[in-house]
C-alpha cells in the first residue's frame, strides 16, 4: 500500500468519506506524497506526453500568439507573461525563442510561473534561467499589471466533483472504505441530496462539476479585464457539459485504476469549457472559442512552420515533423479532443486563431 493510501484510509476512518474533489486534490497535491510533489511525470520516461513535448512547433506558435496579442494591446512596456503549470518548461523555452523575432516584446516580458512541483520547478529553472522567472504556488500572488496568461493541460489537473443519479436524485459521489476489506471504493453520500438540476439522465449516471476550475477561470478573467491582456487555455475536454464519468488515472502512458495506489498516477478529468466561459464572462472578460486545437494551430500557421522545418531536415526528421503535425493538429490525434479558449480584455477583439466563429461540431 502507498503511504498516501494509508493516510487516506486513516482520514476516512476518522472523518468519513472524501468527496471526489478532495480525493483528487490529495492524490495530486498532498504536500509530501501527492503525485505532482514527487517524481518526473512528463515525457517518454514519465507517465504522459503533452503537446509541447511532441514538437517545438507548439510552443513556438504560442510565442507568436503572445507577441501578436501584446501588439494588439498597444505594446505595453512591461507585460506579465504567466504560465500555469509549465511542466518541464518546454513550451516557454520554445515560445521565448520564437518571441525573440519581436525584440521589443521579448524585452517587455516579466515571466511568472505558477507551479507546485519542486522537481518541475528545478527543470523550469534550468531551462528558463535567462528569462529570470518568478515562481508562485498560486495565480493570486502574481503581481497586477497587463498580462498574457497561458495554461496548457493545467485545468484538467484541478479537482472536480462528481454526482450520481440514484432513485431520481443526484447525490455527491464520495470515496469510502469497503466494509470488510477496507479497500477504497466509490459510494454515494447518504446525506443531503444535491438540490440543483444536473440534467436528465438514466439511473446510475455520473455528472461532473468543477467549482475550483470555474473560480480560477474567473480570477484569470478578472485580471485581464481589469489590467489588460488575455488568457489562453488549451486542454482536453468538451464544449458543452455532458453526462459521464471522465475521471481517469494514467501511469507510464497506460490507464490505471483511479482508486489504485493513490499518489502514483496522474489523475485528470475532461474540462467543461462552457462552464469556464461562463465564469470568465461573468468576471467581465470577452470569451473566444473553444475551437479545436487543430483549427487553432492551423490558423496560427502550423503547416507553414512544418514546411519550413522540413526544408533543413533529414528524411527521418521530416517524417518526425509530419508525425508531430498529425498528432498535434490531426482529427485523430490531439487536434479535435483538445480545445483552445481565450479570455480577453473587452477592448482587445478576437485574438489570433479565434477570428472565425467557433465551429459547431458536436463533442
Ligand atoms: N503545461 C505543461 C505541463 C502540464 S502537466 C505541458 O504542457 O507540458 C500539469 C502541470 O501543472 C505540471 O507542471 C504540474 O506540476 C502543475 N500543477 C498541477 N496542479 C497544480 C496546482 N494545483 N497548482 C500549480 N501547479 C500545478
Give your account of this protein's structure:
With 363 residues, this protein is α/β, with parallel strands linked by helices. 37% of the residues lie in helices and 23% in strands. It has helices at 3-15, 20-29, 51-54, 56-72, 90-99, 103-108, 118-128, 211-227, 273-282, 293-299, 302-311, 315-329, 334-337, and strands at 18-19, 79-84, 109-114, 134-136, 147-152, 161-166, 169-177, 184-188, 206-209, 229-238, 248-251, 254-256, 266-268, 271-272, 286-292, 338-344. Strands 2, 3, 4, 5, 10, 14, 15 and 16 form an 8-stranded mixed β-sheet that branches. Strands 1, 6, 7, 8 and 9 form a 5-stranded antiparallel β-sheet that branches. It has a 3-stranded antiparallel β-sheet with strand order 12-11-13. β7 (169-177) and β8 form a beta hairpin. α4 crosses α5 (90-99). The longest helix is centred in the first third of the chain and has 17 residues, at 56-72. It is globular. Residues 358-363 have low confidence and may be disordered. Bound molecules: S-adenosyl-L-homocysteine. S-adenosyl-L-homocysteine binds at residues 28-29, 36, 42, 50, 52-53, 85-87, 91, 114-117, 120, 152-154, 157.
Amino acid at each position: 500500500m502507498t503511504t498516501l493510501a494509508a493516510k487516506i484510509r486513516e482520514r476516512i476512518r476518522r472523518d468519513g468519506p472524501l468527496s471526489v474533489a478532495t480525493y483528487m486534490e490529495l492524490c495530486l497535491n498532498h504536500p509530501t506524497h501527492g503525485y505532482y510533489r514527487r517524481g518526473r511525470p512528463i515525457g517518454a520516461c514519465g507517465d504522459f506526453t503533452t503537446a509541447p513535448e511532441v514538437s517545438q512547433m507548439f510552443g513556438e506558435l504560442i510565442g507568436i500568439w503572445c507577441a501578436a496579442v501584446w501588439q494588439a494591446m498597444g505594446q505595453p512596456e512591461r507585460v506579465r507573461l504567466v504560465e500555469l503549470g509549465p511542466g518541464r518548461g518546454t513550451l516557454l523555452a520554445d515560445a521565448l525563442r520564437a518571441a525573440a523575432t519581436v525584440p521589443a516584446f521579448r524585452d517587455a516580458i516579466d515571466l511568472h510561473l505558477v507551479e507546485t512541483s519542486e522537481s518541475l520547478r528545478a527543470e523550469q529553472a534550468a531551462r528558463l534561467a535567462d528569462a529570470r522567472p518568478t515562481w508562485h504556488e498560486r495565480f493570486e500572488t502574481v503581481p497586477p499589471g497587463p498580462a498574457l496568461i497561458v495554461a496548457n493541460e493545467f485545468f484538467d489537473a484541478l479537482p472536480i466533483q462528481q454526482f450520481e443519479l440514484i432513485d431520481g436524485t443526484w447525490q455527491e459521489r464520495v470515496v469510502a472504505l469497503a466494509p470488510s476489506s477496507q479497500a477504497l471504493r466509490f459510494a454515494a453520500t447518504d446525506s443531503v441530496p444535491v438540490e440543483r438540476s444536473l440534467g436528465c439522465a438514466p439511473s446510475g449516471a455520473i455528472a461532473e462539476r468543477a467549482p475550483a476550475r470555474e473560480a480560477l477561470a474567473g480570477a484569470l478573467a478578472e485580471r485581464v479585464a481589469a489590467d489588460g491582456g488575455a488568457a489562453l487555455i488549451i486542454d482536453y475536454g468538451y464544449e458543452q457539459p455532458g453526462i459521464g464519468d471522465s475521471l481517469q488515472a494514467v501511469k507510464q502512458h497506460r490507464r490505471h485504476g483511479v482508486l489504485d495506489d493513490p499518489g502514483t498516477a496522474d489523475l485528470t478529468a475532461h474540462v467543461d469549457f462552457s462552464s469556464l466561459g461562463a465564469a470568465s464572462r461573468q468576471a467581465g472578460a470577452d470569451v473566444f472559442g473553444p475551437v479545436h486545437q487543430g483549427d487553432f494551430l492551423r490558423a496560427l500557421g502550423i503547416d507553414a512552420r512544418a514546411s519550413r522545418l522540413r526544408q533543413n531536415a533529414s528524411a527521418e526528421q521530416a517524417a518526425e515533423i509530419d508525425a508531430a503535425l498529425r498528432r498535434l493538429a490531426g482529427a485523430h490525434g490531439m487536434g479535435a479532443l483538445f480545445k483552445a479558449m481565450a479570455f480577453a480584455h473587452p477592448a482587445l477583439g478576437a485574438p489570433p486563431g479565434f477570428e472565425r466563429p467557433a465551429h459547431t461540431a458536436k463533442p
